[in-house]
Amino acid sequence: MFPSIARSLLFISLVAAQTVTYQAESATLTGVTVGTSVAGFTGTGYVEGFDTEGDSITFAINSTKSQLYDLHVIYNGPYGDKYTNVVLNNLAGSQVFLPATTAWTTVSAGQVLLNAGSNTIQIQNNWGWYLIDAITLAPSAERAPHNVTTTPINPNANAPAKSLLKYLGSVYGKNILSGQQDPASLEWVTQNVGKTPAILGVDMMDYTESRMAYGARSTDVEKALEFAKRGGIITFVWHWGAPTGLYDTAEQPWYSGFYTRATDFNIETALADTTNANYTLLIKDIDTIAVQLLKLQDAGVPVLWRPLHEAEGAWFWWGAKGPEPAKKLWDILYERLTNHHGLNNLIWVWNSVNADWYPGNDKVDLVSADTYAQGDHGPISATYNNLLALADDTKIIAAAEVGSVPDPAQLQAYQADWVYFCVWTGEYIDGGSWNSLDFLKETYNSEYVLTLDEIQGWAD
């Protein structure tokens, strides 16, 4: 019923209520090869390589109608955690996480909106060295209404924090809030796009003790206060320079001290007990940041607070020793800031997708992810659906950092209900290769995208 065609292209008509498997070895291969040495694969082999940029598998698929399908990838990951890019019809794509495994494993790759007629699905090299056995497609079920909570995890959350979370819940699934990291980049959007983002992203980075010791200074809190007076929403990330142990070499300068590669600070040993010097330094750093957050609380400004971001990537020291120390540090941060310092204006935003790293629904207000795919304005649906499952659809979901802005039409078609996006600073917003000016203007003028002028009075 589903014959292969010439040139090793699978050309199969999809019909409703049916799961179809497409063997990787029968697709079009670019820079990759067919292997058979790892037992357990389906079909006649699997595809390996993915060690060079441009390596890919391309599946050709015929659909009887335009419809949304669930996509899964069957893979083996013997070389550690990896990512791959899945691209539909050379346009919309998703970055898909492939956790380390020595068994053939099926992972969700989100959804694809197939056109009636011919389509292509391409698996592209990202973090290479994984084995691909096959993909499967099945018609997507209608998504049930969201069941998210808008009650903060902090029982003493103040009125501004409660209002912010309630407001996010009111737009979730109906609109997406626009956001921009860094005040200078936000001003670039205003001047060049003609609209101002609803959310300003700022950083506690240069308030960190180890960076201030080298002369770093910041005015991000003052800039956040100014933006809040204009009716905007604030999100703070914290590039937390290691409290000690910075290499400060030509290869790893002090200002890279939040990276695992730039410090010998060991979070696991620092958290082994509460009496060692490195634990004391962690607490001192948290106390220093609390001073800045209290300025925002005193001014009545709630904060989308995103510490320990991208932990599962392990490129930051707080994630370098695996999930347990990172989750323990999250608990310490919450207890110290909330219970010791009385910070009740924080909405706690978790920023990793892997379930092993998740602190739990009782410790997180929002879940989020950071995704970078140059020039790809797809809906990031695989990541969204993974976050949906992570919190059992009880938490609002945010695209806390993006390189390329997702297309509003794609977001709605895929039901990828990100509550906000926040574009990273510099070339990501103004360089033209991640986001063209024409696309930004089109996006910011979409009725689906909310800008600063459209959210005035959100707290009410």
Characteristic terms for this protein:
2 domains; 8-stranded parallel sheet; TIM Barrel; 6-stranded mixed sheet; alpha/beta
Notes on the protein architecture:
By secondary structure, the protein is an alpha/beta fold. It has 2 domains: 6-139, Jelly Rolls (Sandwich); 159-454, TIM Barrel (Alpha-Beta Barrel), CATH 3.20.20.80. Helix content is 24%, strand content 26%. It has 11 helices and 22 strands. The strands form 5 sheets. The protein has an 8-stranded parallel beta sheet with strand order 14-15-16-17-18-19-20-21. Strands 1, 3, 6, 8, 9 and 11 form a 6-stranded mixed beta sheet that branches. Strands 2-12-7-10 form a 4-stranded antiparallel beta sheet. α2 (183-193) links the parallel β14 (179-181) and β15. Residues 1-17 have low confidence and may be disordered.
> How would you sum up the major sheet?
8 strands, parallel
Percent in strands = 25-35%
Cα radius of gyration in angstroms: 23 Å
Shape, principal axes of CA atoms: globular
Q: Which stretches of 5+ consecutive residues score pLDDT under 50?
A: 1-17
**Can you name the CATH architecture of the largest domain?**
Alpha-Beta Barrel
Judged by helices, strands and strand pairing, the structural class is alpha/beta
The side-by-side strand order for the widest beta sheet comes to: 14-15-16-17-18-19-20-21
In the residues, how many domains can be counted? 2
- Number of helical regions: 11
CATH topology of the largest domain, anyone?
A: TIM Barrel
CATH superfamily of the largest domain: Glycosidases
CATH class category of the largest domain: Alpha Beta
